[in-house]
Design goal:
The protein has 213 residues and is α/β, with parallel strands linked by helices. The chain is built from eight helices and eight strands. A five-stranded parallel sheet has the order 2-3-1-4-8, sandwiched between helices. Strand 5 and strand 6 form a beta hairpin. The protein is globular, with a radius of gyration of 18 Å.
Length: 213
C-alpha cells in the first residue's frame, strides 16, 4: 500500500503520517528529511543540496525527483510508502506516477487534511515549547499549568519563525501549489478529503476506516 498525505502547514499531517506508518508498517518519506540527510554527504550531489539549503533557496524538482526515485526503486519499500509533503507540484505528482509505473507500484490513497486557516494560525502562533523537557503547549488550546508542566514558565519558548504574516503566506502558497495536484488525483479517483479539525485520534480513525473499506 502506498499513500500520499496532503495538508497545509500546521494541519497535523506529520502526526498522522507517523500514526499510519506505524499502524501499517509503511516507510515514511518526508522530502525535507531526505534533503537534510543527503546534504550531510560530501559528494557533489550532497554539496549542491547543502548550498541551496544554506542560502534558503528552494530545491529544484529534478533534485527532489532523484531522491524520490532512489526510494521508489528500492525493493525493500515496494508498496510500503507514505509520502508526507510530496508531491508539492503537478510536475512532481506526474513524475511520481511515472516512477510507480516503472517499478510496478501504484498509489492507493491520497488523503488531504482540511483545516481552517485561522485555526492553523492559532495552532502555530500559540505554540510553546519547553526548552527543558520538550513538551509542547498552546496558548489557545492547551495552556501550560502547574499540573501538566513542572519545569516553570521561564523554559517555555516560541519559534522565531512563528510569524502571522509568514504563516498566511505559507498557507496561500500551499493552496496555490496544491490546487492542481488535488484535481489531478481527483481525476484518478484517489482523492479523499478528511476533516482536519477533528481530534488526532478521530482523524486517524477516519483514515483507518477508509483504508479498511
Amino acid at each position: 500500500m502506498n499513500i500520499v498525505l496532503f495538508g497545509p502547514p500546521g494541519a497535523g499531517k506529520g502526526t498522522q503520517s507517523d500514526y499510519i506508518s506505524k499502524k501499517y508498517n509503511l516507510h515514511k518519506i518526508s522530502t525535507g528529511d531526505l534533503l537534510r540527510e543527503e546534504a550531510k554527504n560530501k559528494n557533489e550531489f550532497g554539496l549542491k543540496i547543502k548550498s541551496r539549503i544554506d542560502k534558503g533557496l528552494l530545491v529544484s524538482d529534478d533534485i527532489i525527483d532523484k531522491l524520490v526515485m532512489q526510494i521508489a526503486s528500492n525493493k525493500l519499500y515496494s508498496n510500503r510508502l507514505i509520502f508526507d509533503g510530496y508531491p508539492r507540484t503537478l510536475s512532481q505528482a506526474k513524475n511520481l506516477n511515472n516512477l510507480f509505473k516503472e517499478y510496478n507500484q501504484k498509489i492507493d490513497f491520497v488523503f488531504s487534511l482540511k483545516v481552517e486557516e485561522n485555526i492553523i494560525i492559532k495552532r502555530i502562533l500559540g505554540r510553546l515549547t519547553c526548552a527543558k523537557c520538550g513538551l509542547i503547549f498552546n496558548e489557545f488550546f492547551n495552556m501550560p499549568t502547574d499540573k501538566n508542566h513542572k519545569c516553570g514558565s521561564n523554559f517555555l519558548k516560541k519559534r522565531v519563525d512563528d510569524n502571522e504574516e509568514i504563516l498566511r503566506d505559507r498557507f496561500k502558497t500551499y493552496n496555490e501549489q496544491t490546487a492542481l495536484i488535488l484535481e489531478y488525483y481527483k481525476s484518478q479517483n484517489l482523492f479523499v478529503e478528511i476533516d482536519g479539525m477533528l481530534e488526532i485520534e478521530q482523524i486517524h480513525g477516519k483514515i483507518r476506516e477508509i483504508i479498511h473499506s
